[in-house]
Amino acid sequence: MSKIDYVLASIKDRNPGEPEFHQAVLEVFESIEPILSKNEKYLEEKVFERMAEPERIITFRVCWTDDKNQIQVNRGYRVQMNGAMGPYKGGLRFHPSLNLSILKFLAFEQTFKNALTGLPLGAGKGGADFNPKHKSDREIMRFCQAWMLEAYRHIGHFTDIPAGDIGVGEKEIGYLFGAFKKIKNEFQGSITGKGPLWGGSFLRPEATGYGLVHFAEYMLAEVGKSLEDKVCLVSGSGNVSQFAIEKLLQDKAKVVAFSDSTGFIHDEEGVDEKKLAFLKELKNEKRESIAGYAEKFKSAKYYEGSEKTLWSIPADCAFPCATQNELDEKDVKDLSKNGAILIAEGANMPLTDAAIKAVQNSNIIYAPGKAANAGGVAISGLEMTQNRLGRYWSRTRMETELRVIMQGIHENCQDTMKKYSLDEQDYLNAANIAGFERVAKAMVAQGSW
Ligand code: NDP
Ligand code: 2IT
User: Suppose 160 and one of 41, 88, 272, 365 were both cysteines; which one would form an S-S bond, judging by CB atoms 3.0 to 4.6 Å apart?
Assistant: First the structure.
């Protein structure tokens, strides 16, 4: 067994029963293997083993009382993955399926993503196996307060700064931030994604979706194309999807499908601004299934369940924005057969390993989430800066900042492709290598911790 295979095998051994974490580690490992084998220093310093071992994992009991006065017990988490680049930074996910494998994969990916933003951000991820669906606002508030009552000791603007992810939006961030402020008696930038009236940054809600579309614009420009008139599929219908759709419409693309955990919508006429406003209200205010969209708009058809996926709809561009492993090999083959030219990931790790291999055997240009969805955490990083300065920057300024950062990540990927003689448009290996190198250098410089 080569030294590198041994490293990978030992990481798998140390983390049994964690398939998502193995998948994320293997993907990065395959990309950086050529660098590791040429750079004895990284092997000697055990940089990769250290990156794959969280600096700290906090798990805790979260007890709260529901509206029927019953005590409920959930499990809370914070994985503090890597602090080489700055304080731990990354979102919180509230979803019943959440476990350590998912959190470790998310925190691991966050390490490279945050490095790619060029901002001083370490990496973390957290949340709970709490299901916010069908809960009253009061229940959500009590849950968030109970989560923070334990987690606050590990959180702070120079230590660890959570934000949103699946199931955690502005409402939950408000309750979490309010609890932190009350417990610590301190108004500090300890969480990002706050409302713009109370310490939040303009454009943070839009940042992941808008940044994703900016990244796609740069990818297409590289091959002499644009988003105008392109038929697009966007999975999910939450924060990232809604603002990806919004920016795609501004770019004159045609969005014909989106989804949620109940099924998907195919709207042959395409989503327009009015329909998007309806979708936002349906998902954000009413918190209902997307089925209501097809009841309202006759051009749309709702497909329930998961037998058929939206990826079988003929389209030019695909933007997975729901969750991990939502596209398998068949989905990518369907997209390719139908002539798709681009897949850009708004979600974290939405392609299975086999799906990525299928992309590599196709003509589709593909950007991994680490690069393409980094706009959200980038604007979070700038929310931290604004909080430290005690200032608000304008929306116009934030739009420029987001564009500049996404363009910078794109250029960094292109430069890395050239530097390491990768295939043209190989964003996967380029993003992994560029992110790895930045963190690896910082870790080596700071000694072995
Ligand atoms: P939201 O909770 O706002 O929306 C998630 C969407 O995905 C919903 O439409 C939800 O359906 C759907 N979904 C969730 N889980 C599943 C599942 N298991 N199967 C099918 N559909 C599912 O989350 P976000 O939009 O914030 O996050 C979406 C993705 O983007 C995640 O992978 C997240 O990690 C990633 N991401 C988010 C960032 C952010 O700033 N928020 C930044 C970078 C990446 P339903 O409404 O039925 O629950
Ligand atoms: O996956 C992600 O990058 C996020 N959920 C956003 C993290 C953040 O700190 O804004």
Answer: 88
